[in-house]
Amino acid sequence: MKRACARASCAVLRGGRRSLHAFPLGLLVAAGLVAPRTAPLPSPAVARLEPAAPASAAIATIDALACASPARCFAAGSTVAPGAPGSSTSAVLLGTSDAGHSWSAEPTPPGSSSLAAISCASVAYCTAVGSAAGPDPYSLPAASIVATTISGTSWVAQPAPPGAPFLSGVSCAGLAPGSSAGTGGVGGTTTGSVGAGCWSSVTFNGVIATTDGGAGWGLQAMPVPGNPVQLRAMSCSTGGACASAGNYYDAADATMVPLLVDNPAAATDGGGWAVRPLPFASGRLDGIDCSSANECVAVGQEPGPPPGAAGSSGQGAGAAQGVIVVSSDVAAGAPAWTMAAPAGVGILESVSCPTASICVAVGGNAPAGSPGGSLGTGVVLVSENGGSTWSSAALPPGVGLLDAVTCPTASSCLAAGKSVASGIVMLSSSDGGGTWSYDQAPESVPVPGAGTPGGAVSGHYLSTIAGSLAAAGPAANVGSATAPQTITDYVRTYVLGCQCEVV
After folding, report:
1. Range of the domain at 101
2. 97: left (phi over 0), alpha (psi -120 to 50) or beta
3. 446 preceded by a cis bond (ω within 30 of 0)
4. What is the pLDDT of residues 259-309, one digit of tens each?
5. Per the count of CB atoms within 10 A, which of 20, 70, 162, 186 is most buried?
6. Domain containing residue 421: CATH number
7. Is residue 106's pLDDT more than 60?
8. Contact criterion met (CB below 8 Å) for 249 and 490
9. Which of 6, 34, 43 is nearest to 323 (CA)?
10. 6-20, 22-36, 373-387, 400-414: lowest mean pLDDT where?
11. Is residue 500 part of a domain?
12. Dist CA 485 CA 369 (whole Å)
């Protein structure tokens, strides 16, 4: 249920420097990252730094968590090869059979460069999604889907729709036998042997879905208020009522606008997605969880107040601050979303609601006096009334930004993120998120395979993105008055998800 991108790294493409060869030339020209091509370029025009992957790689990020049962849980993320500049990455899956107290590497199919989200529909059936290397130097990362039907120990790659770019969120839920996505264009119908449907948010414009356990995935179209769109997170309740959260770029106002779309009948009507109004106008949503067809909570961030303004204490000057929106009538077809975040909270990345009343949200705070956007210690918020009010929970020393949380029961929760020093942290709570302790996790894992091309990203997904960037111009501000961000920086941070250099 985890979202796609955040901060100066990206949940889909987290890491360091990445060659510009990995992205379409038109998109990079529009963002001002490379000059327009007027004649054949000498070779090489852009250096591609991709050293051979070693036998093992350090775990760089854990971006998502999901549990098939209270004891059997999985973590998904990415690795980076030791000594590499950040371009040599591969996906990682970890598993635990003791409620998170100890973790070990799961066998990950080759071909995925990162996994951004994971979800389990049953004790046996789980699906993880993310990105794979494109077939040529100018391609966006392609969609990557892996799944298990035996509660881990064996994961297999599933075919994504042709032309789909990288995926940023996934949610799987039980379905009645015979369910299909109707007019939504989803391939296949449930035979009853799997009885699970999965919906995954496409990074640009759309949702892909399966109602046959992953044998066939198809695109469900939705209205798009602006470009580029980033759907970062997905949550579906039993029966196939779904909601997806993220943001889009409003070229007219040059702002990043939060986006929430839902479909109360995604299992039977793939064309029923609709955009819902939100109570804040600038920022983004990074995580969402629906405990039922009606009850949903979404978290994210909005631009913080300028230095010295009311509400700026506790965060770095001008730093983004957390947002929580809740709704209790999603299935009504026109839900009302209300703000619920306490003042002075840092950015929020992920949320889990095991019941209609219990919710846990995680993220990170900027230390007082730090530059805007600098992240220091981790944050955990707990609600016992369905997200209406929240209280802070204590964390062990040394916990940095937390990227993911899942609560398989009202009392048992797992969280993952970064250490203040270096590396990842895995945490668990046995009292509903009130107190947390460190768990054991490997620092490195075997590399399953390096950079197998995943498939071309079609122009259907990209044509409007490059067009809107070109119209705005590379210097257009897509941030705020207190935290300006140019189109060029936006592409680097939220589309490329990395640092890039032309050589």
Report:
1. 5-35+51-495
2. alpha
3. no
4. 988 888 887 777 788 888 899 989 999 999 998 888 899 999 998 766 555
5. 186
6. 2.130.10.10
7. yes
8. yes
9. 6
10. 6-20
11. no
12. 21
With the C-alpha atoms ordered 394, 392, 1, 177, is the resulting torsion angle positive or negative? positive
How does pLDDT run across 302-351, given as a tens digit for each residue?
987 665 555 443 444 457 889 999 998 876 666 788 999 888 788 999 99
Cβ neighbors of 277 (< 8 A, separation 6 or more) are 337
Answer for the pair 404, 64: CB distance below 8 angstroms, yes or no: yes
Evaluate whether residue 502 is within a structural domain.
no
Domain contains 485: yes
**In-domain check, residue 503:** no
Verify cis geometry, omega within 30 degrees of 0, for the bond prior to 44. yes
Number of domains in the chain: 1
Helix (H) or strand (E) holding 461: helix 459-472
pLDDT-derived band at 46, boundaries 50, 70, 90: very low
Structure tokens at 108: 């990950």
Residue 274's Cβ-count burial label (10 Å; 0-12, 13-18, 19+) is: middle
Under 8 Å between Cβ of 436 and 395: yes
Contact between 201 and 169 under an 8 Å Cβ cutoff? The reply is yes
